Structures are given as structure tokens and as C-alpha cells.
Amino acid sequence: MMFFSGSSSKSPWPPTILLFLFILNIALVSSTKTTTSTSKISQGYSLISIEEAPNGGLIGHLHLNKKTNIYGPDIPHLQLFVKHETEDRLRVHITDAEKQRWEVPYDLLPREKPPKSALHKSVAGETGEIPFLSEKSSAGSELVFSYKSNPFSFAVKRKSNGETLFDSTSENSDPFSNLVFKDQYIEISTKLPKDASLYGLGENTQPHGIKLHPNDPYTIYTADQSAINLNMDLYGSHPVYMDLRNVGGQVTSHGVLLLNSNGMDVIYRGNSLTYKIIGGVLDFYFFAGGASPLSVVDQYTQLVGRPAPMPYWALGFHQCRWGYKNVSVTEAVVENYRKAKIPLDVIWNDDDHMDAAKDFTLDPVNFPRPKLLSFLEKVHSRGMKYIVLTDPGIGVNESYGVFKRGMADDVFIKYEGEPFLAQVWPGPVYFPDFLNPKTVSWWTDEIRRFRELVPIDGLWIDMNEPSNFCSGKCKIVKNRPCPGDPGWECCLDCTNITTTRWDDPPYKINVSGVHAALGFKTIATSATHYNGVLEYDAHSLYGFSHTIATHKAFMSLEEKRPFILTRSTFVGSGHYAAHWTGDNKGTWENLKYSISTMLNFGIFGVPMVGSDICGFYPAPTEELCNRWIELGAFYPFSRDHANFYSPSQELYVWDSVAKSARNALGMRYKLLPYLYTLNYEAHISGAPIARPVFFSFPNFTESYGLSTQFLLGSSVMVSPVLRKKATKVKALFPPGTWYNLFDMTQTVIGRGQYATLDAPLHVINVHVYQNTILPMQQGGLTSKEARTTPFSLVVTFPSGASKGDARGKLYLDDDELPEMKLGNGYSTYIDFYATLNEKTVKVWSDVQEGKYALQKGWTIEKVTVLGLDGIGESLAVDIDGMPVSDMSSAEFSASDLYHLEKLEGDTKKKGMMVEVKGLELPLGKKFSMSWKMGI
Ligand SMILES: *[C@@H]1O[C@H](CO)[C@@H](O)[C@H](O)[C@H]1NC(C)=O
Ligand SMILES: *[C@@H]1O[C@H](CO)[C@@H](O)[C@H](O)[C@H]1NC(C)=O
Ligand SMILES: *[C@@H]1O[C@H](CO)[C@@H](O)[C@H](O)[C@H]1NC(C)=O
Ligand SMILES: *[C@@H]1O[C@H](CO)[C@@H](O)[C@H](O)[C@H]1NC(C)=O
Ligand SMILES: *[C@@H]1O[C@H](CO)[C@@H](O)[C@H](O)[C@H]1NC(C)=O
């Protein structure tokens, strides 16, 4: 022990409320005397000093109260670091005061470093020497930090309403301990009010929907476990949750990130939550959030990285499968989509194009380069794109250039000084160590070489949990075919590794739902990365580091916005890539689960997400595939993908599915300007593209667990059919008028209750909320084609209202540019406004940087206003403030609206849809139009 002396142990703040202190003092005395509960594994720590740190934070020192031996020896001295990093963000970092511990690397996830453990004076007498309670908040900060000194605990409160957001105090009656901090076991808990609604903690398939369910297991450790598995640690690691509270109609939401890459079990009991982590440090970030859940995602992504901008085509439809055997088969798929008149933007190959499943190669027989190039020329000439798969495992093969160059550069993860041998699709493989800068350069070079071979438009990185078909220490067996048949059976000769405490830690997290060994079917946890980093610590960062390396490669090779799809994700992955939910099953249950997982990823800052449409395996029924494309057409990332062993499930395979696809994807392609604007909003503020309904209606408690419907942006609601043979759907409608996007005269007056909607096989219910201006185009068979068509605006007022306001926005840019931003001369941003007042309807725009939109020649040809009481007359239009005198081409038309449910007590107000057609308003110029409402 090496505490040094010299600093004061006095609190730098004036004493807070004395009475509180007094009460607390008593509580402290009684609780330290009676902590005897046997289920608790610790008596915690005591805070022996606390002082202001030079950079504006607080540094405290903790001494262990009493040793225990369960899960290994305790760390005797801890350093606490607390800082209000922004007005909305509070960090609480606790680590060993004497030794450097593993943390998520600061170059991988850039953030402020806490001060080095400045070893600190030991305080004689310890407890009682420092104030029992102190509170710390910074000017403007919404979060207040407070602590109790013995046993040490801390709380985070919201300044504006005094509410406690996090409180790690353990009372006698609590089923959890005070702080436990051992080398391989860290435990900390928080109490929660019973009515708090929590969301997040993934990746996991949640059978109970988006809202965390008490006593469901939440284990976080990346694993090649498919989305079919419920309540299990899946491909990604996101130890973050959002907490939504509604006290008497006053709603607040906040976020809590525990930035730690080690495996953990999170136990949610409804009124408390406990983290049991097998390494690293406690690095908590509390996000104050606010009245809107969007504020939580905004503050979260401000720290972990704003979602990546997507190229426009990425929002189009994607078709993939494992088993497009050759170029001709792949080409036929593209042609069949065209013949069936179903939109398609991107055609994918799984590993079929590869030579013996080796990354960055082409099968000389089935994917000969000249043939592939001429196919891609056709694809590209239509404005379509091509993406292929790669896996991180590099085939061990002395005649394979990628492998040879990797060996020469020494890029692979090591075990006992040798590259760690594993097996994936090519047979024996080594795993590149993306924490090593040399690996990143090698990977960039391999991508460069491959792009010279094949002009791919993006990259799919799969199996990066990483997945290994074997476990432990393996050898290649001479004369045994490897891969064997089937290719996913281990064909190496392996022995389990149980020799170190990393392979066999004292506390076993619930890996794969069966407390599997940490190294089971992945890299051995005692294997090492660059600089001696243990796989034990860095395991869940593998996919993240792979993603960053891939992104870096694309950014350095071409001045173009990259598109990367990754299976394994970590905190911050959304800054670089899109995600799909991995292998799912073609069942009705899986159709439903896809919504919760998609919504979770929005909260995780990975808004570009979707599930395999029609299911990865086995064969879906025709009916299921109909319903799946109706839902999947509204996933942010919309891709049909299937297993090698499944029969074809492209959308044209069944006439009925083709019809549903034309309908649903037809609407998606009309909504592309809206989706692309949502992509921009995600990029600047973290706002999820697909959101839970409560995001727009945070005080509407009925929607807190709603997992069968969702919103795109703030006001388009998708209510899919999720049950076999159903021809109606019960959908929850928050209060207000909702207009059916497929037939805007069909309205629902939401009263906060479920309404039964017709939903025959080819119908997907999509509604737009009142007070919205939705920019749309006319669609097309590719996004490129759709993007050239004229715009229309859909303006929604509350049905029959005499007064109303509506707003909307539109972002446009050259989507090939790496950055998505205003101010570069290649983008335009437009706010749309509309008012209804004293029988006058007014619609206008405010344009920022209109030049780009003008160059593109985009115009608005139609404005549809919903909810009015009468038709229009005396239309007046201004462009850039100048009245347009000749409006002879513009014409009004009007239709009645039909309400699914009549307005209560006011059945006479029926409302109208008024359309103004024949307009030619340049999108890049401010316009204003108004008319009087007739009868
Ligand atoms: C919910 O919020 C809206 C708008 O902020 C308000 O009009 C409404 O009265 C609130 N409802 C409840 C139940 O508090
Ligand atoms: C491509 O594969 C299909 C399906 O196996 C086969 O019928 C066809 O002959 C192949 N075409 C070429 C050019 O190899
Ligand atoms: C190495 O790759 C080549 C080319 O694909 C293949 O012919 C050979 O069988 C592979 N060797 C091994 C040992 O897998
Ligand atoms: C290795 O461990 C796995 C599970 O972790 C177990 O199923 C298997 O039997 C073990 N193999 C040997 C040879 O002990
Ligand atoms: C481990 O996870 C599985 C799968 O969710 C679950 O059935 C089991 O109860 C969990 N075990 C514990 C101890 O939580």
C-alpha cells in the first residue's frame, strides 16, 4: 500500500443541510453495525478523502472495510473520480488506486481521461473524518452527485425535481451488496422506483417487448448466438439503459451507460438493478435527458459518436442470400426484380463469390472476374449497388496472399506466442487483431486490393463476435479435410483451455444462457492482443475494432461516404456502421421480435438497423413473407436475406408477396426524402430513425411497453400485422388525428385507445399524425430514379379544427460526399410551415442554402392539406417574396375524409382533403402560398 500524504481530507464545499446530515449520520451508524446479511458478499468500502481535482472533477479515495474471499481477493484501495463533463452528463469512474486496470481503449472510443491514480494520503481514523454527506453539482448542471462515506455509496439526483436517478446504497433489507471491487468481480447496484420504465441493455431478443422485464436475464458478452435465442447475450454489447419516469403526468427520461467491455450479468428486479462484471472498471456516464426521450439519445450519441451518415441508396431495398451460386444466378435475381416491378437498390453476395470461403478472393469458376465486372457495369449503370460479405477469420493457407501478407506484418491475435488457431468457413483461420495499428494498415491494403479487383460499393462484416467453430487450443490434423461436412463442425483437434483465471474466472456470467465457458466457440480468453491486452478484456470489442478498421479503410481509399454492415456491435458502433439483427427464424414470433430489437438499436445509437426480411431460415410461408415485407419495408435497413439451405424467398417468388412488396416498398420509395432527412437528424442529434411510440408521446403511459407498432421519425406510425391469418390489426392510437398514408381520406381519431383496422393480406397500416408536413416524392424502381421525381407536401391539421399549425423539414445533399452537413455547397435544408387560422390556410418554406436544390432542379408539384373544413378559393403564391401572377396551371380538388371512429360528441365535423396540383415551386426557393377556405 502506497498512499502518500500531503492533501487535505476536508470537504471543499460548505456543509449541506444539517438536519439531513444528522439523519444520515444515524442511518450510517445503524447500517454499519448491522450489515450481517449472508447473501451479501461485502461490507463495502469507506470513503477516506475527497477533494477537488485539477480539471474540475472530484477525486476520492476508498478503503476496503473487510476482506472476503468469494470471487477472489478484494482490491484494497480505490480511486473515485467524479466529473460534470457537460451540463447534462455526469461521469463517475471508480478504479484501483494503485494499479492501472483495463478500460475501453481511449483511442477506440475517444473521451476524456480521468486523472492518473494520484496516490493519496492515508487518513488516520478514517471513517468519520470527512463529511458524511456532500453534494456536488456544477453551475448549469442538471445532475447532482452525492455520497455517503461508510459504507461508501453514491447517488445521482435530478436538480430540477430532486428525483433520485441512481442510488447505490444497500440497506439491510436489500437483496444486493454494497460496492464490491475485486480483480475479476465488480458488483454495484442501484435502487429504482417501481414504476420506472427501462429500455436497453443488449443485444438481446426480448420476448416481453422493448420494456425491460423484471427477472429476465440480461447478460452482456458478444457471442455468435442467433436472434432466435431469447433473453441471451447475442452479437453485440450495449451496457446502457434509458429510464423513463412519469410522476403525476410529469415525464422525464435519463440514460445510464456503464462503459465496460468485460462480460457482465445485469440483474433487473423491477425496483433495483445490479451489475455483476468480471473485469475492467466502473465507468458510469449519467445523461440527464429531459422531458423528451430524444434528449437522452442526443446526449448519449454526443459522447459515443453520432450515427454514421448513410448514402441515399442504402435507404433503398436490399436483396441478399447465401447461395447465389454464380454470377448468372445473381444477375437473374436483379432481372426478376425488374420484371416484377419491385424496387431494388442493392444486390448482395454472401460468401458464394469467394474462392473456398477466403476473404477478398473470387471463385474462378462461378464468379470469374470478367463476367462479374460486366454484370456490375450493368448494375452500376442503373444506379444500383453491389455489396459482398467478409469475415474476420483469415484462411491459413500458404498460397493465399491475404494470409501471407498478414503473417509478414504479424497482424494476428496470439496464444502462447503463436497466432491463435481457430476455424470458420474457410477451415483453419487466424484472427486479425484490430487493436494493432499494423493490422489496420494491412486490412486497409487488403480492401484496396479487393476494390481494384471488384468495384464493391460497401462491405458486410460478419462473424465478428468473433465466431469460432472450435473452442480452446487447436491443431490442424493432417489428412483430415477441413472444412469438413457440414462446414461449421469443428475439424481441428482441440483441447479446452482451463489453465488460467481468465479462461476460468471465479464468477461465471450466464454466457449463451448456460454459463458456457467464456472462450466457448470464440477466441480463448487468455489469448493476447497488441500490447499484451487480454482477449478476456477486449473480447466484446472485437466487432467494434473490426468496424472502425473497415471504416478507416474506406475513408482513406476514396472520398466517398462508406456503407458498412456489421453483425457485432459495441457502444459507439453506430458512428461507423449499420447493423442487422443476425440470424433469425421465419416465424411469426420472430417477425414480432424484430421490432423490439430494431427499437433497442435506435436507443443504442445504431439507427440504421433491420432484420432479415422473411427470416433467415427455414422457409417462410407465403403469408408470413407477405407480412414481413409489409413490416420490413419500414425498417430503416430493409433487406431480404436467406440461408443457403432455404428455398428462394425473393419477393417476386410468390405473386402475392410481389404485390405486397410493390405496395409497401412503393410507399417506402415515396418516403425516401423523409427517411433521408431522418438519417440526417440521426447524424446530427442521435434521433433514432425508427422509434418507440412513446418517443413522441412521452406522457402517454399506455405506449410505454408498446412493441408491436413504431414510429418513423416523430409522426409516421407503422402498425403491422404480426399474426397468422389476421385480416385486422388492433393498433394503439395516441390522441389526435392520424391519416392513412395509402389513402389519406381514411382517418383515425386517436383517443389513446386501441382501434381495429382493416388489414387484408396486401395492406400495411401506416399513418401520419396531425401537425406534420411530410415531404414525399413519386417513388421508382431505384432510389436514384425516385430521387429525380417531383416533390409533394402532405400537410396535416387536426381533423375539422378551425386553428392549426404544422411543421416539417427536408434535408438534401450529394450523398456520395463523406460528410453529411450543411455549408459545403452540396446540401440544402428546408423548414416547412403551415397554419390554419380564421379560414385561411397558409403553407410556406424557409430555405437554407438553396443553391444545391436549385441546381438539381427539384420542384414541388402538389400540396395536400388534410383536416380542413372546406375547399379552397383565391389561391395566392409567392416565390422568394414575389407574387406569382399566373397560377392558371394550379387547381384545387377536394374529397371528404372518412373517420374510422367519429369524434365524440361532435359528429358534424368531418373534415376534407384539399389538394393543390399543377404547381411548379422550385424547392430551393422560399415559397409561400395561401388561400381562403370556402364551404
Ligand atoms: C401530455 O402532454 C401533452 C402535450 O405536452 C398535453 O397536451 C397533455 O395534456 C398531456 N397529457 C397528460 C395526461 O398529462
Ligand atoms: C449457375 O448456377 C445455376 C444453378 O446452379 C446453374 O443452373 C447454371 O448453369 C450456372 N451457370 C453458370 C454459367 O455456371
Ligand atoms: C489454399 O488455397 C488454394 C487456392 O484456393 C487451394 O487450392 C488449396 O487447397 C488451399 N490449401 C489449403 C491447405 O487449404
Ligand atoms: C470442453 O468444454 C466444453 C464446454 O465448455 C465441453 O462441452 C467439452 O466436453 C469440453 N471438452 C473436453 C475435452 O473436456
Ligand atoms: C441464464 O440464461 C438463460 C437463458 O435466458 C435462462 O433461462 C437462465 O435462467 C439464466 N440463468 C440465470 C441463473 O439467470
Automatic annotation (TrEMBL):
For this protein, the record's Pfam families field holds: Gal_mutarotas_2, Glyco_hydro_31_2nd, Glyco_hydro_31_3rd
One GO MF term: carbohydrate binding
Q: Where is the signal peptide?
A: 1-31
Q: Which UniProt keywords apply?
A: Glycoprotein, Glycosidase, Hydrolase, Signal
Which InterPro entries does this one have?
Answer: Gal_mutarotase_sf_dom (IPR011013), GH (IPR017853), Glyco_hydro_31_AS (IPR030458), Glyco_hydro_31_C (IPR048395), Glyco_hydro_31_N_dom (IPR025887), Glyco_hydro_31_TIM (IPR000322), Glyco_hydro_b (IPR013780)
The Glycosyl hydrolase family 31 C-terminal domain extends over 686-774
Asked if Protein biosynthesis is a keyword of the record, the answer is no
SUPFAM superfamilies recorded for this chain?
A: (Trans)glycosidases, Galactose mutarotase-like, Glycosyl hydrolase domain
GO BP annotations listed:
carbohydrate metabolic process
Q: Which residues form the Glycoside hydrolase family 31 N-terminal domain?
A: 87-263
Limits of the Glycoside hydrolase family 31 TIM barrel domain:
307-678
Family listed: Belongs to the glycosyl hydrolase 31 family.
Task: List the protein's name.
Answer: Galactose mutarotase N-terminal barrel domain-containing protein
Species per Swiss-Prot/TrEMBL record: Papaver somniferum (Opium poppy)
